[in-house]
């Protein structure tokens, strides 16, 4: 009997920001499963993957998170059906990141203007000039200083930087940047476990240039361990029980051990330094050194085998050996420096990786049932030299991926150029072909006239302006000599305040308050309107502007948003309370699944509010009733249903702190007629939502559906993407 598939993901706060690589993880596992060596994604979990009826990815070309929330009311189907939502890192070439580089998409017999393709791999030219390693470093050998990361590269790849807001309290190794080509190399690797604080170090290894182990120490985490991650770290509870060494001890030892011109080498070394809470100016990151296109990275295990001929991270061992990993990263850097970029490029690592994956597939003959051609015949084809992708593996297993979309939208040359195709034609073809394919990518677009960069800039300003208005409330009137401190204290109990100003243009003074979260502003309107504050009976309201006339409708729809089911907002917390304290305080609440405590992204300090996610909606309602009026550590709590989905905290904070006037609003604004282009755009968005609804309804039960607003990069800045996902059940819900 077919088991119902299920998707789970705790997408709150920083955990809801998903990279292209993490998205690729999900799609690869959904398409191939464990039987083809694909691993469960690190950020979510698919239950009963082998019972999936198929995977459908809907790509909304040149659209971003901004579009979804600007036209939130128009996307009626999307916001009500998909239970999981995440912010997506924008990509320079999004379709390529899904299809795989070097994939030659050959059109089949399709109506004019429509592209329907299956993945066919062809061998690219072996010209080394096209190799990303040569493009980055040139052909000549260079000293080690040419391969250390610049300050800009460190910032881009999330390395701890001196003076950076997120690195407050970090310890510097006190090494200077006076490195030379003869500076000593040291390999570093850490193993981490998950604690109430986040990722914390449990083991540290340091090796010198000869590979000798200088440090291999277990470390006791400061916070309560939530997950030892034994499968990867090799750390167990029993191992850490007698350990007395703390992070500060390791920091001091590393400072003493490293000479002033030391160069640290590691694989994704930024994670190790972040966990160590240490800053070091001179680093070589082997995950970046062996460059690949589109920001993809080779795994350390593969590089060790392909370049050094060494087997590491063997499955027989319990977890990774940090000394082994540190030594492997060090030797890889030494090989690169000694041999030079040309010799490394000649290894043709992409081809080796593809061959390795095909060999893994061939070992699973029991599950390989090729259709229309012999399996051996496919294996005898020359392996592609380009970046391998799961679409290639699907072909080897006899599955035909389906790619449908407008032509001319993809600058990579994957599609023919013809702008005559409509979304309606694409939908019609999708309704016919998607049921016949196990993996489908369907691309819709608003059309070229709506993707100009100046329109994106205008869209950003409109969303920012409306968001600012929704975060703002006016309170008053007050007496002439009212106590501003009392007002701030009372309104602060509703949530974190961004700015507070006194309005003196009126007969009696009013106060304008801009909050950091939507829930705080709404809570202030609901709980303090008509209340006595600072000796006055006051009225609390939002600004009256043309854009705010539908505010009450928007608030109601946000409350009903499927992603806010079972999530409540709690304000009035003391800022001294930690996440561990709150977990303990709220432990008595039934079915509590996740607690998210927002932080100021500049100072790193906790705000005086949190979000609680429950497994059941009824449990959230019961908790709401119980919490209102609670006193915690002398502070009275206020709560309400969540309004902003969990993935929006960072985005709202950034919009709230972007350029533009804050805390100053015109109370009454002249109604501006909506431009014809925006009215037309709203109609197109509504139609697009209807197309997706029709496509979704046609899908079989147990189909994973992912809708992607890829985001964009323009002269006006980068716009984050958005992903919505779910597995369709028998009732048509995700």
UniProtKB/TrEMBL annotation:
Gene3D superfamilies given in the database record: 3.30.70.330, Ribonuclease H-like superfamily/Ribonuclease H
GO molecular function: exonuclease activity; RNA binding
Family matches, as InterPro entries: Nucleotide-bd_a/b_plait_sf, RBD_domain_sf, REX1-like_exo, REXO1/3/4-like, Ribonucl_H, RNaseH-like_sf, RNaseH_sf, RRM_dom
Pfam families per the UniProt record, alphabetical: RNase_T, RRM_1
Keyword Disulfide bond: no
Keywords: Exonuclease, Hydrolase, Nuclease, RNA-binding
Matches recorded under SMART domains: EXOIII (SM00479), RRM (SM00360)
PROSITE patterns found in the cross-reference section: RRM (PS50102)
CDD domains linked: REX1_like, RRM1_NEFsp
Annotated ranges, domain RRM: 471-545, 566-644
A cellular component term, taken from the record's GO annotations: nucleus
Classification via PANTHER family: RNA EXONUCLEASE 5, RNA EXONUCLEASE REXO1 / RECO3 FAMILY MEMBER-RELATED
Protein name according to UniProt: REXO5 exonuclease
């Amino acid at each position: 009997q077919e088991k119902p598939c299920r998707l789970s993901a705790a997408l709150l706060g920083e955990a809801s920001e998903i990279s292209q690589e993490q998205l690729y993880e999900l799609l690869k596992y959904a398409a191939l499963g464990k039987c083809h060596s694909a691993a469960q994604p690190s950020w979510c979990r698919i239950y009963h993957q082998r019972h999936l009826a198929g995977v459908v990815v809907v790509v909304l070309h040149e659209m971003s998170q901004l579009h979804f929330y600007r036209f939130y009311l128009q996307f009626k189907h999307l916001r009500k059906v998909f239970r999981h939502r995440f912010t997506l890192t924008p990509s320079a070439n999004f379709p390529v990141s899904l299809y795989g580089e070097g994939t030659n998409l050959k059109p089949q017999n399709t109506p004019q203007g429509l592209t329907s393709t299956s993945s066919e791999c062809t061998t690219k030219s072996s010209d080394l000039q096209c190799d990303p390693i040569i493009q980055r470093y040139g052909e000549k050998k260079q000293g080690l200083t040419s391969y250390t990361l610049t300050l800009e590269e460190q910032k881009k790849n999330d390395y701890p930087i001196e003076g950076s807001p997120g690195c407050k309290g970090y310890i510097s190794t006190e090494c200077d940047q006076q490195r030379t080509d003869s500076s000593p190399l040291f390999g570093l690797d850490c193993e981490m476990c998950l604690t109430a604080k986040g990722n914390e170090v449990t083991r540290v290894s340091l090796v010198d240039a000869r590979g000798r182990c200088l440090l291999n120490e277990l470390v006791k985490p400061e916070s309560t361990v939530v997950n030892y991650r034994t499968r990867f770290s090799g750390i167990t509870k029993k191992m850490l029980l007698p350990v007395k060494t703390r992070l500060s001890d390791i920091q001091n030892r590393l400072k003493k051990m490293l000479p002033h011109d030391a160069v640290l080498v590691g694989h994704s070394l930024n994670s190790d330094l972040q966990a160590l809470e240490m800053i070091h100016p001179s680093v070589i990151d082997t995950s970046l050194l062996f460059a690949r296109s589109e920001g993809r990275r080779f795994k350390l295990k593969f590089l060790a085998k392909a370049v050094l001929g060494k087997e590491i991270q063997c499955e027989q061992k319990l977890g990774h050996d940090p000394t082994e990993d540190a030594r492997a990263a060090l030797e890889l850097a030494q090989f690169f420096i000694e041999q030079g970029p040309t010799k490394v490029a000649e290894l043709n690592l992409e081809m080796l990786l593809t061959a390795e994956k095909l060999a893994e597939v061939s070992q699973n003959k029991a599950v390989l049932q090729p259709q229309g051609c012999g399996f051996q015949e496919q294996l005898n084809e020359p392996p592609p030299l380009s970046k391998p992708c799961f679409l290639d593996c699907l072909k080897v297993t006899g599955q035909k991926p389906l790619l449908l979309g407008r032509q001319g939208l993809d600058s990579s040359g994957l599609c023919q150029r013809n702008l005559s195709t409509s979304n309606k034609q694409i939908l019609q073809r999708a309704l016919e072909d998607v049921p016949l394919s196990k993996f489908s990518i369907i691309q819709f677009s608003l059309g070229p006239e709506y993707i100009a960069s100046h329109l994106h800039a205008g869209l950003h300003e409109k969303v920012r302006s409306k968001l600012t208005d929704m975060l703002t409330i006016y309170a008053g009137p007050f007496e002439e000599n009212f106590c501003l401190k009392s007002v701030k204290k009372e309104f602060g109990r509703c949530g974190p305040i961004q700015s507070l100003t006194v309005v003196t243009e009126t007969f009696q003074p009013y106060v304008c308050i801009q909050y950091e979260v939507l829930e705080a502003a709404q809570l202030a309107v609901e709980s303090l309107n008509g209340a006595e504050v600072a000796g006055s009976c006051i009225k609390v309201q939002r600004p009256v502007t043309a854009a705010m006339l539908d505010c009450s409708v928007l608030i109601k729809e946000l409350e009903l948003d499927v992603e806010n089911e079972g999530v409540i907002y709690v304000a009035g917390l003391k800022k001294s309370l930690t996440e561990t304290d709150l977990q303990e305080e709220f432990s008595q609440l039934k079915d509590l699944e996740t607690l998210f405590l927002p932080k100021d992204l500049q100072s790193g300090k906790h705000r005086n509010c949190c979000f609680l996610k429950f497994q059941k909606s009824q449990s959230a309602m019961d908790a709401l009733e119980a919490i209102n009026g609670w006193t915690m550590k002398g502070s009275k709590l206020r709560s309400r249903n969540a309004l902003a989905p969990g993935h929006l905290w960072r985005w709202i904070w950034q919009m709230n702190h972007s350029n533009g006037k804050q805390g100053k609003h015109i109370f009454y604004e002249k109604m501006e007629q909506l431009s014809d282009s925006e009215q037309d755009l709203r109609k197109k968005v509504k139609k697009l939502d209807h197309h997706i609804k029709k496509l979704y309804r046609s899908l079989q039960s147990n189909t994973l559906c992912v809708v992607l607003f890829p985001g964009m990069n323009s002269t006006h800045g980068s716009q984050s993407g958005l992903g919505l996902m779910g597995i369709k059940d028998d009732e048509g819900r995700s």
